[in-house]
Amino acid sequence: MSYRTLLAGFFVSVVLWPAAGQDAPRPTQTVKLLVPLLEEAPVIDGTLDEWQDYAFSDGVWDMNRLRHTFWYDEGRRNRLTDHGEEGHIDDDLSARYYVAWDRTNLYFGAKVKDNVNDVDAPGDVPRAWYSRDSVCYFLEAPRDDAPEFFGQGDSAFCFTADRTRPPHAAWWRHGTADEAYVEEPIPNDAVEYAFVFDGADFVLEARVAMAPTLGVSDPRWLPPQIGDVYGLEIVHCDPDGGPYGGHFMIYGTGDDDATWARMVLTGPQRPLERRLE
Ligand SMILES: [Ca+2]
Ligand SMILES: [Ca+2]
Ligand SMILES: [Ca+2]
User: Which member of 32, 41, 163, 164 has the lowest number of beta carbons within 10 Å of its beta carbon?
Assistant: First the structure.
Protein backbone atom coordinates (compact mmCIF):
# COMPACT_ATOMS: atom_id res chain seq x y z
CA MET A 1 0.00 0.00 0.00
CA SER A 2 1.42 3.35 -1.02
CA TYR A 3 2.09 6.14 1.40
CA ARG A 4 -0.57 8.19 -0.42
CA THR A 5 -3.21 5.44 -0.04
CA LEU A 6 -2.32 5.08 3.61
CA LEU A 7 -2.58 8.81 4.07
CA ALA A 8 -5.95 8.92 2.28
CA GLY A 9 -7.20 6.09 4.49
CA PHE A 10 -6.00 7.93 7.57
CA PHE A 11 -7.77 11.09 6.39
CA VAL A 12 -11.07 9.29 5.83
CA SER A 13 -10.98 7.26 9.02
CA VAL A 14 -9.52 9.74 11.44
CA VAL A 15 -10.36 13.15 10.03
CA LEU A 16 -13.65 12.74 8.17
CA TRP A 17 -15.20 10.03 10.27
CA PRO A 18 -15.19 11.70 13.68
CA ALA A 19 -15.91 15.03 11.98
CA ALA A 20 -19.28 13.59 11.07
CA GLY A 21 -19.93 13.44 14.81
CA GLN A 22 -21.48 10.01 14.57
CA ASP A 23 -20.79 6.50 13.40
CA ALA A 24 -21.97 7.01 9.84
CA PRO A 25 -19.90 8.30 6.94
CA ARG A 26 -20.63 11.79 5.70
CA PRO A 27 -22.66 11.82 2.48
CA THR A 28 -20.85 13.15 -0.57
CA GLN A 29 -23.83 15.17 -1.80
CA THR A 30 -26.26 17.75 -0.45
CA VAL A 31 -29.85 18.64 -1.30
CA LYS A 32 -30.82 21.95 -2.88
CA LEU A 33 -34.11 23.38 -1.64
CA LEU A 34 -35.92 26.43 -2.98
CA VAL A 35 -37.54 28.30 -0.10
CA PRO A 36 -39.99 31.03 -1.12
CA LEU A 37 -40.50 34.56 0.10
CA LEU A 38 -43.88 35.27 1.69
CA GLU A 39 -45.53 38.46 0.51
CA GLU A 40 -48.03 38.42 3.38
CA ALA A 41 -46.92 37.67 6.92
CA PRO A 42 -48.81 34.74 8.47
CA VAL A 43 -50.80 35.05 11.67
CA ILE A 44 -49.06 32.79 14.18
CA ASP A 45 -52.03 30.89 15.58
CA GLY A 46 -51.31 27.22 14.87
CA THR A 47 -53.12 26.99 11.55
CA LEU A 48 -51.03 27.08 8.40
CA ASP A 49 -53.83 27.61 5.88
CA GLU A 50 -52.86 31.13 4.92
CA TRP A 51 -49.29 30.30 3.90
CA GLN A 52 -48.80 26.56 3.46
CA ASP A 53 -49.26 26.80 -0.33
CA TYR A 54 -46.76 29.66 -0.51
CA ALA A 55 -44.07 27.91 1.52
CA PHE A 56 -41.50 25.23 0.80
CA SER A 57 -42.82 21.77 1.61
CA ASP A 58 -41.95 18.45 0.03
CA GLY A 59 -44.67 16.18 1.32
CA VAL A 60 -45.00 13.63 4.09
CA TRP A 61 -41.91 12.26 5.81
CA ASP A 62 -41.86 8.92 7.59
CA MET A 63 -39.28 6.20 8.26
CA ASN A 64 -39.99 4.44 4.99
CA ARG A 65 -39.27 7.56 3.02
CA LEU A 66 -36.18 8.35 5.09
CA ARG A 67 -34.61 4.92 4.54
CA HIS A 68 -34.40 5.72 0.82
CA THR A 69 -32.52 8.99 1.22
CA PHE A 70 -28.75 9.28 0.72
CA TRP A 71 -28.31 10.69 4.20
CA TYR A 72 -30.08 7.77 5.88
CA ASP A 73 -27.72 6.37 8.49
CA GLU A 74 -28.90 2.73 8.53
CA GLY A 75 -31.06 3.46 11.53
CA ARG A 76 -28.32 4.74 13.83
CA ARG A 77 -30.20 7.94 14.58
CA ASN A 78 -32.95 7.89 11.97
CA ARG A 79 -35.06 5.50 14.00
CA LEU A 80 -38.18 5.11 16.07
CA THR A 81 -38.39 3.27 19.36
CA ASP A 82 -40.47 0.31 20.50
CA HIS A 83 -42.82 0.95 23.39
CA GLY A 84 -45.16 -1.94 22.73
CA GLU A 85 -47.13 -0.26 20.00
CA GLU A 86 -49.21 -2.60 17.90
CA GLY A 87 -49.88 -0.39 14.88
CA HIS A 88 -47.71 0.08 11.84
CA ILE A 89 -44.42 1.99 12.29
CA ASP A 90 -45.76 4.67 9.93
CA ASP A 91 -48.32 5.48 12.64
CA ASP A 92 -45.61 6.26 15.22
CA LEU A 93 -44.50 9.45 13.53
CA SER A 94 -45.00 11.21 10.24
CA ALA A 95 -45.00 14.88 9.37
CA ARG A 96 -45.08 17.56 6.73
CA TYR A 97 -42.74 20.51 7.26
CA TYR A 98 -43.00 24.04 5.92
CA VAL A 99 -40.34 26.75 5.61
CA ALA A 100 -40.54 30.28 4.22
CA TRP A 101 -39.00 33.72 4.75
CA ASP A 102 -39.59 37.42 4.39
CA ARG A 103 -37.33 40.43 4.88
CA THR A 104 -37.47 40.10 8.66
CA ASN A 105 -38.38 36.56 9.63
CA LEU A 106 -38.03 32.89 8.97
CA TYR A 107 -41.31 30.96 9.11
CA PHE A 108 -41.53 27.36 10.24
CA GLY A 109 -44.49 25.00 10.19
CA ALA A 110 -45.10 21.33 10.84
CA LYS A 111 -48.15 19.10 10.66
CA VAL A 112 -47.30 16.12 12.80
CA LYS A 113 -48.93 12.75 13.37
CA ASP A 114 -47.48 11.26 16.55
CA ASN A 115 -48.81 8.40 18.67
CA VAL A 116 -47.35 9.49 22.03
CA ASN A 117 -46.62 12.98 23.36
CA ASP A 118 -43.48 12.94 25.53
CA VAL A 119 -41.99 16.20 26.75
CA ASP A 120 -40.20 14.93 29.85
CA ALA A 121 -36.41 14.99 29.81
CA PRO A 122 -34.09 13.39 32.37
CA GLY A 123 -33.32 15.94 35.09
CA ASP A 124 -35.74 18.36 33.46
CA VAL A 125 -32.73 19.95 31.72
CA PRO A 126 -33.94 23.01 29.77
CA ARG A 127 -31.63 22.55 26.78
CA ALA A 128 -32.63 18.91 26.26
CA TRP A 129 -35.02 19.37 23.36
CA TYR A 130 -33.46 16.20 21.90
CA SER A 131 -34.99 14.24 24.79
CA ARG A 132 -38.45 15.66 24.17
CA ASP A 133 -40.93 15.63 21.30
CA SER A 134 -39.61 18.56 19.34
CA VAL A 135 -39.25 19.85 15.83
CA CYS A 136 -35.94 21.61 15.16
CA TYR A 137 -34.87 23.64 12.19
CA PHE A 138 -31.07 23.76 11.87
CA LEU A 139 -29.80 26.69 9.82
CA GLU A 140 -26.48 28.01 8.71
CA ALA A 141 -26.68 31.62 7.52
CA PRO A 142 -24.88 32.36 5.36
CA ARG A 143 -24.02 28.81 4.31
CA ASP A 144 -20.38 28.01 3.72
CA ASP A 145 -18.61 24.81 2.75
CA ALA A 146 -16.60 24.46 5.95
CA PRO A 147 -17.76 21.62 8.21
CA GLU A 148 -18.71 23.23 11.52
CA PHE A 149 -20.55 21.91 14.53
CA PHE A 150 -22.68 24.74 15.86
CA GLY A 151 -19.92 27.22 15.23
CA GLN A 152 -20.25 30.68 13.73
CA GLY A 153 -23.41 30.98 11.63
CA ASP A 154 -25.10 27.81 12.88
CA SER A 155 -28.45 28.08 14.66
CA ALA A 156 -31.01 25.45 15.63
CA PHE A 157 -34.50 26.68 16.42
CA CYS A 158 -36.17 23.92 18.42
CA PHE A 159 -39.83 23.86 19.33
CA THR A 160 -40.91 21.40 22.01
CA ALA A 161 -44.49 20.13 21.70
CA ASP A 162 -45.38 21.02 25.29
CA ARG A 163 -48.90 22.29 25.97
CA THR A 164 -47.65 24.21 29.03
CA ARG A 165 -45.28 26.41 26.96
CA PRO A 166 -42.33 26.39 29.36
CA PRO A 167 -39.50 28.88 28.68
CA HIS A 168 -37.42 26.11 27.10
CA ALA A 169 -40.11 25.27 24.51
CA ALA A 170 -38.61 27.67 21.97
CA TRP A 171 -34.89 26.95 22.15
CA TRP A 172 -31.85 28.29 20.33
CA ARG A 173 -28.68 26.27 20.04
CA HIS A 174 -26.11 28.28 18.17
CA GLY A 175 -22.53 29.26 17.63
CA THR A 176 -20.90 32.68 17.54
CA ALA A 177 -17.58 33.95 16.20
CA ASP A 178 -15.95 32.79 19.46
CA GLU A 179 -18.12 30.00 20.86
CA ALA A 180 -19.85 26.80 19.80
CA TYR A 181 -22.93 25.15 21.28
CA VAL A 182 -24.36 28.17 23.05
CA GLU A 183 -27.66 26.98 24.55
CA GLU A 184 -30.40 29.45 25.46
CA PRO A 185 -34.08 30.17 24.86
CA ILE A 186 -34.80 32.07 21.67
CA PRO A 187 -35.00 35.73 22.82
CA ASN A 188 -38.66 36.53 23.56
CA ASP A 189 -38.85 39.43 21.16
CA ALA A 190 -37.36 37.33 18.36
CA VAL A 191 -39.91 34.51 18.35
CA GLU A 192 -43.62 33.85 18.19
CA TYR A 193 -44.96 30.31 18.06
CA ALA A 194 -48.19 28.37 18.45
CA PHE A 195 -49.13 24.71 18.75
CA VAL A 196 -52.56 23.27 18.13
CA PHE A 197 -52.91 19.73 19.50
CA ASP A 198 -55.22 16.89 18.62
CA GLY A 199 -54.20 14.15 21.04
CA ALA A 200 -50.47 13.66 20.40
CA ASP A 201 -50.84 15.04 16.87
CA PHE A 202 -50.06 18.69 16.50
CA VAL A 203 -49.56 21.61 14.18
CA LEU A 204 -46.64 23.95 14.84
CA GLU A 205 -46.49 27.45 13.45
CA ALA A 206 -43.58 29.77 14.28
CA ARG A 207 -41.68 32.78 13.15
CA VAL A 208 -38.16 33.72 14.19
CA ALA A 209 -36.69 37.15 13.52
CA MET A 210 -33.39 36.82 11.71
CA ALA A 211 -31.42 39.89 12.77
CA PRO A 212 -31.42 39.10 16.54
CA THR A 213 -30.59 35.42 15.94
CA LEU A 214 -28.72 34.79 12.68
CA GLY A 215 -27.16 38.24 12.92
CA VAL A 216 -25.81 37.42 16.39
CA SER A 217 -24.50 34.03 15.36
CA ASP A 218 -22.55 35.33 12.36
CA PRO A 219 -21.33 38.93 11.97
CA ARG A 220 -21.15 38.26 8.21
CA TRP A 221 -24.94 37.79 8.07
CA LEU A 222 -26.75 40.48 6.07
CA PRO A 223 -30.49 41.08 5.70
CA PRO A 224 -31.82 38.39 3.36
CA GLN A 225 -32.03 38.81 -0.38
CA ILE A 226 -33.39 36.59 -3.11
CA GLY A 227 -30.59 34.27 -4.13
CA ASP A 228 -28.93 34.02 -0.72
CA VAL A 229 -28.02 30.48 0.29
CA TYR A 230 -28.51 29.17 3.81
CA GLY A 231 -27.98 25.66 5.19
CA LEU A 232 -31.03 23.71 6.37
CA GLU A 233 -31.65 20.46 8.21
CA ILE A 234 -34.79 19.38 10.05
CA VAL A 235 -34.41 17.25 13.16
CA HIS A 236 -37.60 15.86 14.62
CA CYS A 237 -37.15 14.17 18.00
CA ASP A 238 -39.57 11.52 19.21
CA PRO A 239 -38.42 9.88 22.44
CA ASP A 240 -41.87 8.56 23.36
CA GLY A 241 -41.09 7.34 26.84
CA GLY A 242 -37.32 6.85 26.67
CA PRO A 243 -34.66 9.37 27.72
CA TYR A 244 -33.30 9.66 24.16
CA GLY A 245 -35.18 7.90 21.48
CA GLY A 246 -36.45 8.27 17.98
CA HIS A 247 -35.39 10.87 15.44
CA PHE A 248 -36.04 11.92 11.94
CA MET A 249 -33.02 13.66 10.43
CA ILE A 250 -33.99 15.28 7.19
CA TYR A 251 -31.61 16.76 4.59
CA GLY A 252 -28.47 16.10 6.65
CA THR A 253 -26.79 13.75 9.09
CA GLY A 254 -26.68 15.72 12.33
CA ASP A 255 -24.65 18.58 13.72
CA ASP A 256 -22.15 18.73 10.83
CA ASP A 257 -23.41 21.73 8.88
CA ALA A 258 -21.55 20.70 5.72
CA THR A 259 -24.13 17.93 5.33
CA TRP A 260 -27.13 20.29 5.50
CA ALA A 261 -29.21 21.18 2.46
CA ARG A 262 -28.43 24.24 0.35
CA MET A 263 -31.49 26.36 1.03
CA VAL A 264 -31.86 29.00 -1.67
CA LEU A 265 -33.99 32.02 -0.76
CA THR A 266 -36.27 32.45 -3.76
CA GLY A 267 -39.03 34.86 -4.72
CA PRO A 268 -42.71 34.17 -4.08
CA GLN A 269 -44.26 30.85 -5.11
CA ARG A 270 -47.72 30.43 -6.60
CA PRO A 271 -49.95 27.67 -5.22
CA LEU A 272 -50.35 24.52 -7.30
CA GLU A 273 -53.51 24.48 -9.37
CA ARG A 274 -55.41 21.64 -10.96
CA ARG A 275 -55.67 21.73 -14.73
CA LEU A 276 -59.01 21.59 -16.50
CA GLU A 277 -57.94 18.37 -18.19
CA1 LIG B 1 -51.55 30.87 10.85
CA1 LIG C 1 -43.86 11.54 20.29
CA1 LIG D 1 -20.30 25.52 7.60
Answer: 164
